[in-house]
Each structure stands twice: as structure tokens, then as C-alpha cells.
């Protein structure tokens, strides 16, 4: 395992260097994927018309002349506008746009500015064309704008050729540096409809995370000894909160300063979610030395924080390190053939594919001919499906172990009941033998022979879980003969139906007949039992019927009116042991006869 950790540190360092040059995950989804859109399929033709402006010229201060095209900005600072970029105070941004042709009047050129803190004015070729919030040179007078700003440019301004886009920014209220910013332009239809589609896809992904989070939290509340459920539920809910924040600013257009307060929580929630995912793997698979693994994760995260203290650079690298750790950990578990580890490895591979550096994501989107929102939705569904499968396997295995323990418990209970029944029966029989010896020694001898025969059969079948019904009937008839000698009466057992090939738990009908003799017939009263067997397409039904003078004294017999003794408890226990969940037992008095019905469904009836 520790060799794998050394490999992890190497991979984590490689990914850290790679991602330090790449935009954050939100920016990668919105900018790099959109930049790859020109080669997408026909369903993405509108998105292919959108262009993202990433490389800008910037200068602190304020001069109205900076909005004019003739101004020379060659000495201005070059910057990359995107994930985590932010400036304080007053400054200008400039960028040159080349329009190959004039847009259609029915679908005008539109400018979209996403999450630029905190207030700005937009100039097109030196002309003021839009405002977002109230621009000011101080905190008191500044009024932040909204996170999504859409500006439709008229045909008069958007003829073919080169144009200057200048943005005059004041940012005195937003102090955090994790905000992701994007500026794009294209036809109005290309900016609106793909956004709506992306939001719909994101909403589906949000629903999946929310349902998964609640489901596993409920499982934890039901099974308090399973912290893995709580860990994975927390992972899903952290992703839900992050996605809800992104959905909120894209669909509702929150105020930029409000966005700046919420985004750090949402942004750092992703590393927390990945940490919980790794903890889930450690607990779910019962990995040894979990504390050392968690310490290793913490050390790696601290190393990234020290090397890249800026949140915009730190967060995606920490995410990559945590995902790589989980990938290596599940791969080691899969090599060791831990049950469910293959599914976990598949889920981590899906997550890793989604967290790779931005240009790889763009190439993957290009290959799949998919939009970022659709890609997000599909990857979310695949990831959750893998890990739901991991947990489902664990639950199924635990249920099987529980059922095995229940069967073992039932067998022990049956053995105890059998040991309780036999001494009672032997004691009564020995008392009968003693009584007959003084009155009729010959009959006492026959009683001893009948007792020996019954015990011979019991010893042969009692230890078996199931016996052929012919052996059970042989035991029943031997018992009726013995009881006839004991009680100075004649008892018989009649059979109806096809009994061939059937198996039942040992001493099942023997116990029921013994109960019938005890509770239905007076001493010296002859009696008979009838056992019917009815085979149907759904199973086998047994009906055991007997009369007896004592039955008239039963007030309200039936499952709810007769107290079950050890005999009926033994019958229920043996039925559940042999046919778990597949049997029914009914009994009661009808038309002056005591009737017992046992139905065994077809899964094990024959």
C-alpha cells in the first residue's frame, strides 16, 4: 500500500504542475470546452458561434481616453482572464475583436460577461453601450452588478472588421479571489439556447446528487454502525451545494458581492467532497491503518497549499491530488480482489476523467461531440451508478450474512425444541410402560418394541435438514401405533394425493399428530388422521385433518385463539429453516374437525 502512496505522490506532483497552467474546473467547462465547440456536431452549431475572450490588456487607474481605439495599450499588462482572477480598485480592460461579417438583424451580436467583480461599464469602439451596477471610485458609492450580464449590440455597431471592446471596472467591495470570470460574444440565439440547455443538464445532475445524498444519509440513520453511508452522503451533498451555487448564479444572476461571499464555501466544498470520498473508500472497504491514509491526504493537501497559496490555483490541484489518491487506492484494492473494488475503481476513473486538465476535457468533448452541461450530467450519472453499485453489493452481502445467522439461530432453536419435546414424550411413555407391566405384561412388551422402533426412525432422520416424506409418514404411523398401546386405543393415518418425490423437515407431521392426539382424543378413544397433498402450479399444499371428542370444548380455536406450545413453535422454526419466506401455516376448527394447512411455494416445494 505504501508503495502505491509513493506512486501517488509522484502522480500528484505531475498533475499539480500540469494543472497550475490550466484554468479551474468551472472555467475549463465554460471556456476551454466552448473554445473547442467549432468542431462539434450539428446539435452544437449554435455553441460553435460563441467566442470566449481570454487574453486581455489591463491597466490600473481611470482615463476616459482608454476607451478609444487610437489609444496605444502596448505598454499595458497582458493577463489571462478566467478562474480565480480578480483585481481590486479601479482599472480598465481592453481587447480587439475581428468580425468577419455583419450579424443578421434578427439575431444580433450579443456580449455576455460572467461574474466580473464588481461593477463595470462597457465601451464599444469608444462608445458607452452598457452598465452593470453603478461605477464609482470608492466603496461607498459603488453598487455591485449581477453575476451574468447580457448586452445586445445593434447592427450599427457590429459591422465587419476590427472593433475595440473596453471595460471600465471598479471593484471596492469584492475582496475574495476565487471568483471565476468569463467574457464571450456571439449571436443572441447562440448565447441563450445553449445556456438554457446547459442549465437543464446541470439541474439533472443536481437532482442526482441531492437524491443520492439524502438516500445515503437515511441509510446511515437506519444503520448507525455504518459511517460509510454518512461519508458518501456528505460527498454527494457537498457536490450538490457546489452545483446549486453555479446553477444559481447562471440562472438567477446573483449580485456579484453576494456571489463572492458564497463562492469560497462552494469552491472549497469540492476538496471537502473528495476528502469524504476517500474516507468513504477507506471505511467501506475496511482498509487497515486508515489514520495513516488520512494523514497522508492532509500532508499532500498542505503541500499544495504551501506551493500554491492562491485559492484559484490551489483548489483544482488539491482536487486532482485527492482524485489521484482515490484512484490509486481503489486500484490497489482491485488488485487485492476486494469485493466491489472493481466498481469503485470504475467510479474513480470516471471522476478522474472529469477532473483532468482543461485542454484534455476540451478534446474529450470534441471527440464525444457533446456540450459541457451534457457531459457533466452523463459523468455524474455514471459516477453515482458505480458507487451505488459498490454500496448495493455491501448491503446484499450483509443481508446474506444476516440470513445465514438467522438460519443458524433457527436450527439451534429447533434442536433445543426437539430436545425439550423428546424428554417429555419419553417420560410419558415410560410411565405408560410401568402402568401396563402391572396389568398386562404382554402389552407392555409391545409398547417397548413400538418405542424402540420409533426411536430407531427418529435417530435415522432427526439430524437431517429435510427427509423424504415417506420416511416422515413411516415415523407418524409408528408413533400412532405406540400411542395406541399407551392409550389403549386404535389410531390410523390415511393418505390422499400424490406424495412421491416430496421432502419435508423431519418430525414435521409427527409433531402435529402428537398435538392432535393430546388435544383432540380422550384416553381409550379411537381416532384417525387424514393427510392430503395437493400439487398446484404455485407450490404444494398439505392438509392434515382429525376429529376427536375434546374438540367440542374449544371455544374459539384458530391462530389467534389457541396458544402455541413448543410443538407449533418447532413446526414454524423447521419450515422457516427449510423454506425461508416460502411457507404458510394455518390451523383451526371447522365443521367439528381440526384442520392444519401448510403451503410451500414452488421455489423449493418439489
How are the SSEs ordered, and which strands pair?
Elements: H1 2-20, H2 25-35, H3 45-48, E1 51-52, E2 55-60, E3 77-80, E4 89-99, E5 109-114, E6 119-124, E7 127-132, E8 148-152, E9 161-171, E10 182-187, H4 188-222, H5 227-251, H6 256-284, H7 290-307, H8 311-335, H9 341-355, H10 358-368, H11 372-439, H12 441-461, E11 467-468, H13 469-487, E12 491-496, E13 503-504, H14 508-520, E14 527-535, E15 539-546, H15 566-578, E16 583-590, E17 593-601, H16 602-605
Helix pairs in contact: 1-8, 2-10, 4-5, 4-11, 5-6, 6-7, 6-8, 7-8, 8-9, 9-11, 11-12, 11-15, 12-13, 13-14, 14-15
List the keywords:
606 residues, 3 domains, Jelly Rolls, 18% strand
Summed over residues and divided by their number, the pLDDT gives a mean of: 77
Query: What is the count of distinct domains?
Result: 3
Shape: rod-shaped
Separation of the first and last Cα atoms: 51 Å
Structure notes:
The structure is a single chain. Helix 2 packs across helix 10, helix 12 runs antiparallel to helix 13 and helix 13 runs parallel beside helix 14. A hairpin with a 2-residue loop joins strand 16 and strand 17. The N terminus is likely disordered. The chain contains 16 helices and 17 strands. With 606 residues, it is an alpha+beta fold. It folds into three domains: 128 residues, no CATH class; 148 residues, Sandwich (Jelly Rolls); 205 residues, Heat Shock Protein 90 (2-Layer Sandwich).
Amino acid at each position: 500500500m505504501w508503495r502505491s502512496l509513493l506512486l501517488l505522490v509522484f502522480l500528484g506532483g505531475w498533475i499539480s504542475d500540469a494543472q497550475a497552467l490550466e484554468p479551474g474546473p468551472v472555467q475549463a467547462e465554460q471556456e476551454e470546452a466552448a473554445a473547442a465547440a467549432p468542431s462539434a456536431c450539428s446539435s452544437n452549431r449554435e455553441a460553435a458561434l460563441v467566442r470566449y475572450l481570454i487574453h486581455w490588456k489591463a491597466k490600473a487607474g481611470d482615463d476616459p481616453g482608454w476607451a478609444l481605439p487610437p489609444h496605444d495599450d502596448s505598454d499595458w499588462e497582458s493577463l489571462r482572464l478566467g478562474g480565480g482572477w480578480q483585481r481590486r480598485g479601479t482599472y480598465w480592460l481592453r481587447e480587439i475583436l475581428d468580425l468577419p461579417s455583419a450579424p443578421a438583424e434578427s439575431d444580433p451580436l450579443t456580449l455576455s460577461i460572467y461574474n466580473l467583480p464588481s461593477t463595470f461599464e462597457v465601451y464599444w469602439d469608444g462608445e458607452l453601450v452598457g452598465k452593470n451596477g453603478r461605477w464609482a471610485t470608492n466603496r461607498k458609492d459603488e453598487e455591485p452588478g449581477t453575476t451574468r450580464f447580457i448586452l445586445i449590440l445593434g447592427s450599427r455597431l457590429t459591422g465587419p472588421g476590427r472593433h475595440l471592446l473596453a471595460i471600465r471596472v471598479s471593484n471596492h467591495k469584492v475582496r475574495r479571489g476565487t471568483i471565476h470570470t468569463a467574457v464571450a460574444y456571439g449571436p443572441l440565439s447562440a448565447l441563450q439556447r445553449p445556456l438554457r440547455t446547459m442549465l437543464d443538464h446541470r439541474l439533472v445532475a443536481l437532482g442526482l446528487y441531492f437524491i443520492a445524498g439524502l438516500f445515503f444519509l437515511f441509510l446511515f440513520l437506519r444503520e448507525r454502525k455504518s459511517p460509510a453511508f454518512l461519508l458518501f452522503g456528505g460527498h454527494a451533498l457537498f457536490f450538490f451545494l457546489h452545483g446549486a451555487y453555479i446553477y444559481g448564479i447562471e440562472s438567477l444572476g446573483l449580485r456579484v458581492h453576494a456571489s463572492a461571499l458564497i463562492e469560497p464555501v462552494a469552491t472549497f466544498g469540492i476538496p471537502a467532497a473528495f476528502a469524504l470520498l476517500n474516507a468513504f473508500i477507506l471505511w467501506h472497504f475496511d482498509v487497515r491503518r486508515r489514520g495513516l491514509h488520512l494523514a497522508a491526504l492532509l500532508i499532500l493537501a498542505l503541500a499544495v497549499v504551501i506551493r500554491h497559496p492562491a485559492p484559484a490555483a490551489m483548489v483544482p490541484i488539491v482536487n486532482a491530488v485527492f482524485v489521484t489518491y482515490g484512484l490509486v487506492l481503489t486500484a490497489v484494492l482491485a488488485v487485492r480482489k476486494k469485493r466491489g473494488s472493481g466498481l469503485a475503481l470504475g467510479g474513480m476513473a470516471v471522476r478522474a476523467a472529469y477532473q483532468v486538465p482543461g485542454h484534455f476535457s476540451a478534446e474529450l468533448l470534441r471527440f464525444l461531440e457533446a456540450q459541457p452541461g451534457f457531459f457533466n450530467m452523463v459523468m455524474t450519472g455514471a459516477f453515482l451508478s458505480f458507487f451505488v453499485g459498490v454500496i448495493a453489493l455491501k448491503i446484499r452481502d450483509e443481508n446474506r450474512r444476516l440470513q445465514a445467522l438467522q438460519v443458524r439461530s433457527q436450527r439451534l432453536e429447533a434442536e433445543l425444541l426437539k430436545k425439550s419435546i423428546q424428554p417429555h414424550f419419553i417420560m410419558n411413555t415410560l410411565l405408560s410402560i410401568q402402568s401396563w407391566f402391572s396389568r398386562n405384561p404382554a402389552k407392555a412388551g409391545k409398547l417397548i418394541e413400538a418405542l424402540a422402533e420409533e426411536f430407531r426412525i427418529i435417530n435415522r432422520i432427526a439430524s437431517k435438514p429435510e427427509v423424504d416424506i415417506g420416511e416422515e409418514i413411516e415415523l407418524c404411523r409408528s408413533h400412532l401405533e405406540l400411542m395406541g398401546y399407551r392409550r389403549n386405543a386404535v389410531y390410523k393415518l390415511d393418505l390422499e394425493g400424490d406424495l412421491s418425490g416430496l421432502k419435508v423437515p423431519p418430525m414435521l407431521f409427527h409433531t402435529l399428530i402428537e398435538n392432535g392426539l393430546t388435544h383432540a382424543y380422550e384416553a381409550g378413544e379411537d381416532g384417525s388422521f387424514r393427510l392430503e397433498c395437493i400439487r398446484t402450479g404455485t407450490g404444494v399444499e398439505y392438509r392434515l385433518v382429525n376429529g376427536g371428542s375434546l374438540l367440542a370444548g374449544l371455544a374459539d380455536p384458530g391462530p389467534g385463539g389457541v396458544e402455541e406450545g413448543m410443538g407449533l413453535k418447532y413446526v414454524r422454526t423447521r419450515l422457516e429453516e427449510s423454506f425461508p419466506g416460502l411457507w404458510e401455516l394455518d390451523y383451526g376448527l371447522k365443521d367439528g374437525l381440526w384442520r392444519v394447512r401448510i403451503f410451500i411455494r414452488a421455489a423449493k416445494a418439489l
